[in-house]
Amino acid sequence: MELIYEKCRGRKAFDFGLLDVPEASFPEMLKRKLPPELPEVSELDVVRHFTHLSRRNIGIDTNFYPLGSCTMKYNPKIADLVSNYPGFTSSHPNLYYIESLIANLSGAMQIVYELENMLSEISGMKEVSLQPMAGAHGELAGVLMVSAYHKHHGNFHKRIVLIPDSAHGTNPASAAIAGFEVREISSNSRGTLDISEFKREMTEEVACVMLTCPNTHGLFEDSILEIADIAHSKGALLYYDGANLNAILGQCRPGDLGFDVMHFNLHKTFGTPHGMGGPGAGPVGVGEKLIKFLPGPRVVMKEDGSFSLVYPEHSIGKIAPFLGHFLVAVRAYVYILMQGGEGLKSISRYAVLNANYVLARLKEFFPPAYDRLCMHECVLSTEKYLEHNVKALDFSKAILDKGFHAPTVYFPLTVKEALMIEPTETETKETLDQFCDAMIELANLAVHSPQTLKEAPKTTPVGRLDEVKAAKELNVCKQATNRDV
Amino acid sequence: MYPEDVRYTETHEWIGEEDGLYVVGLTEYAQEQLGDVTYVELPEVGRHVRQKEPVALVESVKAAEDMYAPVTGVIVEVNEALEGEPELINFDPYGRGWCFKMDDIDLAQFKRLMTREAYEKYLKSL
After folding, report:
1. ipTM surpassing 0.90, yes or no?
2. pLDDT, tens only, A312-338
């Protein structure tokens, strides 16, 4: 397929017309010598180009997308619609900085204020800040608060963060960037935290324990209350990675389980389409101990019902410009209001039911890493097909030819030839059956005609890509044309 | 697949003596599990390391994994060829795919590491 640059033939789709206002003077030295090299084609060519591109893509609007750990669920269009209201899209983010103009943002500030309260209620955390821009950014904000908290109390020896091997991969990175030493805790044979190893590692030097719950095995940490007690008894704080929050919405609350700090992934749980690098939003929630350390400024409601901005007493400072990804916050606001309390409960019920349905139908063919009821995702293994030289990667390519996005493969790292499937709450039983039928068909092919899987995919715009070359010599830049600029 | 004259760790490093130094690399099992290796970050020469301390990073198309010091000692040389050709770990894990060399090692620790026989038994238990 030609790049849009290669389609340029001097045609234009748009004309600015004649200047109908007096021309402003502009310093000569700042003017470009040549016009920018932008692609210009006819309107029809633009429409066709991008329509063709979109048809080569695969997304939740076109296909089932069971990418474990990622929560690629369908998000209602009404959330997009509302966030595109001109009152939201054209409110200037910098108005926050101008005291005299803040009143113009009272509607936006009210949404921030109310959404923070809703998230507090959903999570059981005392206060929430919408500032962080994405999940890992929320993690960083969270561990920076943990660091500030311990330093504030003079506990400089608290330099270790414990993270189970079933946690999300970004947790160790966030903790390391915040200056902590990371220690990994193994999983036990049931796929949850190994409590005896945890107790051994849980010294006075531990600042924080970061848990993903349900973890990346799709399992709920059933010893969570004991884990929280042990951590707290040594003065450590407990971090909740909220990436899998759709599994427990309305059933239990991290704040009630003993967590001191957490992040939400609004783009996974609350109504923003997810994938392709954003936009996301990763609000942080905290319990009593960390309120004073929240990122600032925060939106507060004054006695007269108007809103203003304040910095918490020991704030870690501003962690993002403005008040976070506001339009993503609007989507979450709409989504939560639309669902209501009962709706949020049914999200977790269906997320868990769907995952267990897939698990039950596929476990004979792809034995699960841990044979027990799962939460919102299940981890299966293709290990038994290795004797036919068929790997998880081959299944993930072959399923594309059946019209499904591939599940996550080779993650979690604790499971050999892992297939991690998250159907999400938004899929119907019919779709799940089609997917399971296709997977079972592939399992039979793997035994009787392994070459078919090795040669897949055949129906996609490109076949098997050279992954080594993509990792070592990635080059997605178009070669510049040799025009002097 | 698993040479007799080196020792093995539970984290799938091998270590063997060569001209008075101790050469360390990843085992056949490790390279097979990782898949095509795309990048290796090697330790600094001269660094003193403790046993089980993460000293190198190996990235493949599937995962990024730490590599641990099999014994306490000093890093005295690293395999610079891996910078341009990390895939040597896949093609020749006990030869040209070696990762680093150590000196002044804790010999008692070395002797406690797994023999080939013990390592093969350990692999079966995984």
Report:
1. no
2. 999 999 999 888 899 999 999 999 999
Q: Answer yes or no: do A471 and B59 touch at CB < 8 A.
A: yes
How many structural domains are present in chain A? 3
Looking at the structure of chain B, the number of domains it has is: 1
Does a structural domain hold residue B13? yes
User: CB-CB: which of B39, B62, B87 is closest to A410?
Assistant: B62
Q: Where residue A82 falls among pLDDT bands split at 50, 70, 90?
A: very high
Interface size A-B, in CB pairs within 8 Å, comes to: 21
B36 three-class SS: coil
Q: Within a domain: residue B33?
A: yes
Whether residue B87 lies within 8 A of chain A, CB to CB, comes out as yes
* A99-111 confidence digits (pLDDT tens): 888 888 889 999 9
Would B122 be classed as within a structural domain?
no
CATH number at residue A458: 3.90.1150.10
**Mutant choice from A187, A467, A474 vs B, greatest count of B C-beta within 10 A:** A467
Pair (A334, A387) in one structural domain: no
Query: Which residue numbers in chain B have pLDDT < 70?
Result: none
Kindly list the residues from chain A whose CB atom is less than 8 angstroms away from the CB atom of residue B59: 471
